[in-house]
Request: fold
Amino acid sequence: MSAAGAGRKAPQLRSLMPWLVLAFLVWLVGYPLLVVAAEAFGIGSPGGGGPTTEAFQSFFTRADEWNAMWRTLWISVLSTLAAAAIGVPLGFLFERNEIPGRRLLGALVALPVALPPLVGVIAFLFLYGESGLAARGLQSLGLDVSWRLTGAWAILLVHAYSMYVYFYLFTRAGLSGQDGAAIEAAQSLGASRSQILFRVTLPRLRPALAGATLLTFMTSLGSFSAPYIFGGGFRVMTTQIVASKLNGELRMAYVETTMLALLAFASLLLLRKIDPGLDLASGARGTPPARRRLHTRGARVGAAAGGWILAGVLLLPHATLILMSLVPPNTWTVEAFPPVLGLVNYGDLLSSTERLRPALNSIWMAAAATLAAVVVGVMAARLSLRRGGLPGRALEAMMTLPWAIPGTVFALALAAAMSVNAPWVGRFVLVGTLWILPLAYLVRSLPLTGRSIFAGLRQLDPRLEEAAASLGAGALRTVVQIVLPLLRPAVIAGAGLAFITMLGDFVTSIVLYTYDTRPISIEIQSSLRIQETGIAAAYGVLLMVLSAAAFIAWDDRAGGRL
Amino acid sequence: MTRSGVSVRFDDVFKAFDDTVVLAGVSLTVEPGEIFALLGPSGSGKTTMLRLLAGFEQLDRGRLLIADEAVEHLPPARRGVGMLFQSYALFPHLSVAENVAFGLKVRGGAQGETEARVAEMLELVRLSGFEQRRIAELSGGQQQRVALARALAPRPRVLLLDEPLSNLDPALREETRADLRRTVKQTGITTVLVTHEQEEAFELGERIGLLNEGGLEQVGGPAELYRDPASRFVATFVGRCSVLAGVVKERHGGDELTVRIESQPEAPAWRCRSSDELAVNDRVDVCVRPESVSLETDEGSGLSGEIEAERFTGSNSFYTVRLSAGPTVEVAMPGTGAGLRGACVVRQLAGELPAAFAAAPESDP
Reply:
């Protein structure tokens, strides 16, 4: 073959690559959503007959369905408000005031962001549950108190606790990016402290608060662990979907899934319309204002004590989880505090292959999904940013889409699409196999790795790749020797987040797991169901430790980008 | 070290981005071993020509030949072209030696040969001893030299230089320019350089192609472009030039003609030259170089005017003269400023024939 002939094939393949990667992403991300919507209308389901709106009619006429929709909405609104009420003042407290131990306390307050939602939920259960540590403690003091941590308020409490971190981190980031000169200008013009807060600081914090609002609202909309554990009879859309599926009402589950996806899309569009400015780096950058120093000793001691108490309250559930993991089976009955503590549960967990299996499952499935998400992310980002055009924009949209869609929706969509053997329309039987859960984790990891890799690649000078090409390097060598080493911090940051998130995944796992692929979260749920609280807590601690270790290791390698 | 270069040919090359035509059928041949400068204003298409040659853009029509071999379908890696980027595009995670060795390792060179070539290249750019330095530890000029060594190391057939000095501060630029020319000439490689700075093109380029709006206005040596511009654009873009409106009074043999300056018809007519087809009474633009005219403060024949400003540059003084009822003319006077003021006359120097071009049709108000 002549050199020119060989050269002609390469451009043809190069121009096809974006379409091939796009086709894969559409199959993985977009297609299952279309299948679930089609099946909701009775299209494509085996033996399902012709298209029908029967299930939708049923959805719109059943009060429990409407209730679930309505509850999902108002729980999300209230969760966002509650998270803001805690996170924003905390953000101001740690960013604008010089209190003793500020750096350590500030990091501790942000810790819940690195922990899987299910761990937070069971930690709450062990601390504030009906027979939790708090109730027993109060009863031991002779107080005749009893409560049930269940229903809407329980969900709200857990949401506020686990989601305030978004507002806290966004507020701090927004404040640290503000120019102190604007405040000094307002002071020189005679503005009071409250005027400066409401007319200068808060308006300029709006993009950060809008970002936190969007993140919190969307997370709450797709929240599953808290409503599942604490909801009881109070159903939101995610738990309603899983209940319908478990009850064998598959068509109704698909309708609910479609409606939740539409609700998520509509919310996303509405929130972006209300405030499209999600860029934290808006406006002129300058030196942030100096932190307020506390002059009197009393004020400093008071602030430090307050800070530590606050951190203690916020970390108390996780401390309780650790405590519970040390309680041997059947040793704690009526006492206020566990009478016996030991490592029996950990011994059980580590000595039995069957007990260890969920941990190994979680690790390998999260690692495989993360690795695949990095590979797909790097390919999509390069093709999207270097080639541009319609396939470029579509690639980025496909990578981002899973972020806007609740995990339950994707789990159901994959369950619907991948339970039929019809290879000619891109459907394979993967449900019930080893592959479905890693595939679902991959879908959910894509926006996490994608966002980071896209951002990293946008900062990379495209001339570096051209330089490598002009020196004779092919595409693969350019990626391996030039792009990846320079993208390393971005890849590690995205991969770290994806790995931690998938390690503790509960929402997709509960729909798609098999006995052989059951992850830690499912084992925690099973242990709770058979009253093995110590084992459940030990699994929770294991998940917490693995997540924290991954977080610290990756944060270190990613240069503090996590 | 010296190698015989190869020819480079652009044959009716056409390139558009969406609806914007960037190159409209450009043809050009760069001779083997020549340093050729593509000069032109921003958006004239010079960088696109370079990127087409490197293979980073695909042409829409035409042919590209290196050593008479069509390369337009070859990927960048197979064109045998080395490129020095405007931003240098050095790999920040690799050391100086690793950067220079990159293209050699890609080709699977033996370790000993690679090391020897790296040492040879670093010696060529006078950076021996810098092998293990990180890129961030180098000055701008050193980075530029590493980028040059990296581009030359795999022995490319053609070297492309994209605004190679624009990232350097003015003091360093002059020294580096001479260094760059010496190094490139030493290798004997065919070189295509892109710049928007006339001084850089004149000093580095043996021939220059002046681009404007996607077409070549003129190709020639620096002196040819300066003294014998093919168009009003070339005359005004290359060097300093004042444009005076005139009317053809008389045609002589060859391309010489006499032009009456429109604003002062009673003044002596100017002898000019033009390659345009011009007839008596045609309107023309006369491009007057500052050094082709003289300035007298005594009464006499010439274009009368008033000195508006003086600019002293060290070796010359430049006077801006406002002609009576007319435009301004810039006049260069050798030596230190004489502090001339007031009324004056501007005369054409003997032997200097300014270029005249058919006047552009007057645009609608």
Remarks:
- Strands of chain A lie at 97-98, 292-293, 419-422, 427-429.
- The interface with chain B takes residues 3-4, 7-8, 10-11, 461, 463-464, 466-474, 477, 481-482, 485-486 of chain A (CB under 8 Å).
